[in-house]
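hey so i finally got around to running the thing on that chain from the lab meeting. sorry it took forever, my laptop kept dying and i had to restart like 3 times. anyway pasting the input first so we r on the same page abt which one it is
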Amino acid sequence: MCNCIVKSKVLFFILTLALILNAPQAVLCQDSTHVKTALVLSGGGARGFAHIGVIKALEEIGFYPDLIVGTSMGALIGALYAAGKTPEEIQTYVEETNWIKLFSYQSYREIEFVSQKMVELPAIFSLRFDNHFNVIFPKNLLSTQGINERITQATIYPDFATGGDFDSLTIPFRAIATDIRTGKSVVLRSGNLAKAITASSSYPFILAPVAIDSFLLIDGGLTNNVPCDVAQDLGANFIIAVDASSKIVRLGNEIDPFSLWGQAVNTISFFSDTRNLHLANVLIHPEIGEITSTDFDSVQTLIDYGYEQTKLQVEKIHPYATHRKPSADQLNRTISQTDSLFIRSIHFTPNLLTKKMVIDREITLKKGDRWNLNLARRSVKNLYSTGLFKNVYISLSQAGGDSADLKFDIEEQERTQFSFGARFDSERETRGFASMKYKNLFGVGIDNLVYLIASDQYRRLAWDFRTPRIWTTTLTGYLSLFRQEENIPLYQNMKRTSFGEFTKTGLEFSGGVQVKRVGLTSVGFQYESTNVESDSSYRPIISKTSYETGSLLLRILVENTDDIDLPTRGRINNVLFQHSFNKNKLLLFDRFSVESSSFETFNDKYTFSTNLQLGYLNSALSIFEKFRLGGSESLPGYHQDELWGRLILSVGIGVRAPLASGIYYQLTGKFGNVWEDIQYFNWRELRPGFKTGVLIPTPVGPISLDYGFNLHGRNLVYLSIGHNF
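ok and heres what got predicted. didnt touch it at all, straight out
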């Protein structure tokens, strides 16, 4: 009996051992102590698109990590995957994103109220001051608003479903950033997911730091670009790390500034890039080669590199492949309920200087409304376009049942700002400006602007008081006091004969109603005192004179262009009627003018423009009240303001297209002329003017070099550098 029992036990032991030894590897891992796996994704800008290929290959192998840790672009790709998106969906997302536009300054100018655009002085350099008049030195060149807005589109619903807990995503997730105050790495584990990704990607000096709690955060790649140690600290036993960062390379004899900057950054980041690589069980280095961190057009190539390099590591990865994809069903069920949500309440950042009324009037979603992502995004753009705020973040949180709370996390701009700008052009030489603006007076959005524009030929000192919106209405008000002096070159037969000098001192105030933010109908009053210096060398002779005029102004203005220098879409329509009143009938006049421009871009490359200028003045008190024509933008082939008259007509068409990276070719054709009265108008007297040239956008404004000519042997070269003002 005992022998039978012993034999049975031995047989059971042998059978059990055989089953264990022949069990599939995945079952072995499941039955033994579970190995916690992690996927660590580095930064690297556009090179980080290789992470998508890595994830795609890992899924084919059957490997699904228990944790994802990402830095910068790795934080974005990792967060999207952790939120349940497939590699194909992530690829579509990055391909549909206009990365160049996101990394450029975005003011949402096309939806600004038209009253905000009536006086624009594009600055090269600005200094802001806090409420105690302490200087706030610039920390960045570009805003993160555009990036955050794009990321929010993809993350607001996962944020809502998880309540801001990154552990509750389909795969637990961590983002790495750097606290600029201490220089230490910060691990972000909860909160607004889009804001965390933006902070992790905020490259110093280029993008603005992001404030989260007590931290002021910038790119995590500066301190921990491949954060394997974070994964290890969170209990990961098996770590796959992907390093897509740029490497230090040997430079040639000729070093351009961009290569120098890139090499310097790579050198500084070398320790951050390499210090944790030894902690990875599998290290994937996509063979990216010469593709740079700003090459956002090489998406598929980078994905292929990541995919191919991961497939080479299949033998190391396969033992940890569970073939069990984390379920996103619960997350998706919660997200699907958002279509039926109602807004229970709307919250703002507390202790703002801006009045609640100013914020409320820009938000298109109201308490009790059904949730709508497009309206929420429009609200963010409306708030940012006021110019009162640095950044605007939104989040949606569950409030029970079919209701939700909407929160706007708002960072206010400093109110006091000094700005400086300059421009050179071959017709008017160098001019500059200095301005002081006090924004958001009394917290209701009123702007005060004092500025001086100065050059050898033009000087203007002015104080402008403007309220873009009166309370919650679309009414607007404007007041300006000014003094203007001009020494204008006067031409006869294409030759400069003298300079015409005059001075205007006056005031203007107007009020009107704005239509759909981009339209304005206004009524105003203008008073001017004018002094004209004599000039006997010009024909007709300019006599010394002084006169004062008061006039009624009626204006219809539509302006929705997206850029002040290089519009790609939108139109400008400016219709003005001016009627003077004076006891002296000799000082009476009526002026009517129409200026219209439109811009349309096709295939994201070719921008076509049209232009019309029409005006009539029934009586000119001096030559300087007449319409002017000529110059690169007005009538190519002629000097700026070479032609003067009481009747003006000009029509034109132009095209701008990319010639090379960062360089554009432009071609413009115009027909125009001026006449002394309607009775002298003749279609055959329209003068042709054409220009062809190149344009290079720069941080200090566009550089434009053009050759202007007509069909009568006239030609001029125009050079301009800087913003137009």
